[in-house]
# Entry
Amino acid sequence: MAPNGDDAEEEWPQQRWPPDLVYPEVPSRAACWKGFRRLCAITPFISLSIVCLVTLSTLYFGWVNPTNLRHHSRIEMVAFCTEVALLMWSYLTAVLRGPGFVPSGWEPSKKEVRDLLATSDPRPFMEVEPVAKDLLQFCEICRCFKPPRAHHCKECGRCVLWMDHHCPWTGTCIGHDNMPAFVLFTHYVPLASLHAFVIHAEIPIRLGVLWYRNQASAFWHVLQRIHTVVGLTLAVVSLVVMILVGSLAFDLHWSLSNNLSMVEELVVDKAKARRYDSKEAQFVFPYDLGERENWKEVLGRSWRTWFLPLKFDGSAVWPTLREGSGAFDLSVETLVQKANKLSRGVAARTSKALTGVRGGVPAVIGFASAGGTVARLAAAPRRAVTDESSAEPDTWMLVTNREGGWVKAQRLRGGPAGTPEGPSGWLPECCFETLDEEHRYEVPYQNLLQGTWEVDPSDANGVGAGGAADGDKPSPSAPSAEPRRVRVQGPVARAAHSQLAFVLRPEEKSGVSLLGVPLLSVDSVEACWGNGEVWRRPPQPLPGAAGKDGKSNSVGGGALRQRRPIED
# Structure
């Protein structure tokens, strides 16, 4: 990982973006070798074989041995060969170029984060500059931060820039680098398949004419030829390919018109449902620039890139934003969704050891060593149990999913309310003592922090909405400013004036922190933070307060409030 602190920019300047996104004039040997390995996989071989067979058969029935139902000119042959050439060019570009991966150990610099926040959310509610871990996801497998539109692909084993989906027919993901070529490929395939189907359709038409004219001998003579059977088969193949790839191209039209990938579509749907339940403002996708601009963002602004799979110079890390949106809106929303998912998980302790295995026959051995049976394994889904998810007895794990005798778990460092660490993996359910729904996972003091809080600008020696620096005297107008409101719902804290929400994180010393600021003490009416900020509950009408008629509503003395200090 890139070094932390202010020295990161000087010690590791080559990690700055977008220079890494510019295609080199001559690809490196490693890049060429990886592209060649993808091309030699089984699915690209099948795809290329189908294209070659349909192309040769079309040329044969159209110009070498035509059915003579209609004349096929040389201009038509040139047009068909051009379609196939563009198809092959786009496909090979998508496979050989690859989607573009996040470099190992990538981390944005502090200056980069500060500049991006200044344009979208200049005053976070804790008056603390957020760091990368509060704004971006961190991949435990690749050991790097993910740019806002990057996601980890289990098939590729890497974090993919601007990931849309993993395509088995290309043997790799569709991401930032090969998305334009893939879009052109999905449009050229239906065009060439339609042309091939029209030419192959002359074979059944000829057979139908012979049958209609009662020329049975000629009908069976033509039908029994090998090239006739092959032609009929490839006509069906052309029709199926045209329908399947054409439907994919139709779906891509919707995605490109909204500048939305398949993975981001799920995130946006969850964001709308979550914000509706929590009564927050509706989520606005930050990269939707309008239909015309969205197409230019994907295919480029030159007409050549709309028809040829040429170089794409867009930024995959910090793409163009719509007006009023921030660079971290999508990534922070993803962090919030994952935090809510963890809060719905169950903290469980293992009772048996399990050595990490990776499916197949070793999975049977590992499952049996955990006290299970092969019969139960056969009834369970085939899941990969990685070495990182291996468990020892009396190890606390966070279980987030259960399916057919298997559970998806992640280690908890520091006990049942500790910090999840390392990648998650699937383990047999018999490894755990119990999976009681009562042991819901939550960060320390999460229940006490729930609800709405007010932050007085005059608190914390001028740290507040007035924005006075430490040691400076607050301005005379600062005490008269309205208190800032902070709402904590589950493991997520959000301020009324801030566009971003941040996640409460468990800490070993203080118990919980927010934006790196430890919580010092908390009770039912007040919370004190390490930066001097004090949160207080909004004033509520008390039983002893005077009503409108001037009479007291008191029914007894107030109870003493007991503070609960947080032990180090």
About this structure: Residues 1-26, 356-389, 460-480, 552-568 have pLDDT under 50 and may be disordered. The chain is about 35% helix and 15% strand. The first strand starts at residue 138 and ends at 139.
